[in-house]
Structures are given as structure tokens and as C-alpha cells.
Design goal:
22% strand; alpha+beta; elongated; single chain; three-stranded antiparallel beta sheet
């Protein structure tokens, strides 16, 4: 693959044919650039959620332990 910077875009091209196989917007370090159209087919069927799921039983106990600790400080 060949990487080509074209202004604010980074192009990924097939060296033999020159065909552009991917195109990404450039951003400063630490910035995030998302192209919603790119993810439309992959994630459109999923509802948007803001919840965080615990990894395991121990992780799910952390909020309860913290609450008990804070309650005991009163």
C-alpha cells in the first residue's frame, strides 16, 4: 500500500493500479475525526446507549462498595 497526503486527507492507494482503497481525514494529535457515513451500515441497527457494562462480577461490585464506604463516612 502507498500512503499519500492530499491536503487534509490521507489516501491509501494500491501501488500497482493507483486505485485509492481508503481515504481518511487528518487531525491534530489527540483529536478524533469520525466519518459517520463510514459506520452507517455497521452500527445503524444498534440503539445508542450511554450505559457502561461491568466486565465481571468483581467490577459490578465496585459501585456498591464505594457507596457503602461513602455512607459510612457520614
Amino acid at each position: 500500500m502507498t500512503l499519500i497526503q492530499d491536503g487534509a486527507r490521507l489516501l491509501v492507494a494500491e501501488p500497482a493500479s493507483g486505485e485509492v482503497v481508503a481515504e481518511h481525514l487528518l487531525a491534530a494529535p489527540g483529536e478524533v475525526v469520525l466519518d459517520e457515513a463510514h459506520y452507517e451500515g455497521c452500527y445503524a441497527h444498534r440503539p445508542v446507549t450511554k450505559t457502561v457494562e461491568p466486565f465481571d462480577v468483581a467490577a459490578s461490585a465496585i459501585p456498591a462498595i464505594t457507596f457503602e464506604h461513602l455512607s459510612s463516612l457520614e
